[in-house]
Design a protein that fits this description.
Blueprint (H helix, E strand, L loop, with lengths): L2 H9 L2 H21 L8 H9 L3 E2 H8 L3 H13 L3 E6 L2 E9 L1 H21 L5 H19 L1
Helix pairs in contact: 2-6, 4-5
């Protein structure tokens, strides 16, 4: 493969574009989240807990398509920071249920505000149809990669 062919391939690489967008996204959110005491890498875990308080730890792993050990580390960090509590599932003692704390519920509005402003920036100049089409395509890509 020639350098020209490689360059053309790179210009059309969805992986490269998603990777770059992920880095830009992460950089943009890191400072704002740090101001309220949240590490960027723990946000998806915290959002799962906020959406489904009492969620089983394994369900978070599945919902985020993340390694169980990475889930355990992120939740340990959130627990140490006072954002979540983990308790044994009374119906299955091998499972841990994850709950938000008062501290988390107090900053929930700020988290949602940060994410709303961020999403507005991401979709600046998009029509509603383009925004919906983009989200649908991303969902389909995620589905394809999960199967």
């Amino acid at each position: 493969m020639t350098q020209t062919e490689i360059a053309k391939s790179e210009q059309k690489s969805v992986v490269k574009k998603i990777s770059r967008l992920n880095r830009l996204n992460s950089n943009s959110l890191t400072k704002q989240l740090a101001e309220i005491g949240i590490a960027r890498g723990t946000l998806p875990f915290l959002m799962e807990v906020l959406c489904r308080d009492g969620i089983i730890q394994q369900e978070i792993t599945q919902a985020l398509s993340i390694d169980p050990a990475a889930t355990a580390r992120a939740l340990q960090q959130l627990e140490k920071s006072g954002f979540i509590n983990r308790r044994e599932n009374k119906d299955n003692r091998r499972q841990k249920c994850v709950y938000s704390t008062k501290k988390t519920r107090e900053i929930k509005g700020k988290i949602l505000e940060i994410l709303q402003v961020h999403n507005t920036k991401l979709f600046d100049g998009f029509t509603n149809k383009e925004k919906n089409d983009c989200l649908n395509m991303l969902d389909r890509m995620i589905f394809n990669m999960c199967n």
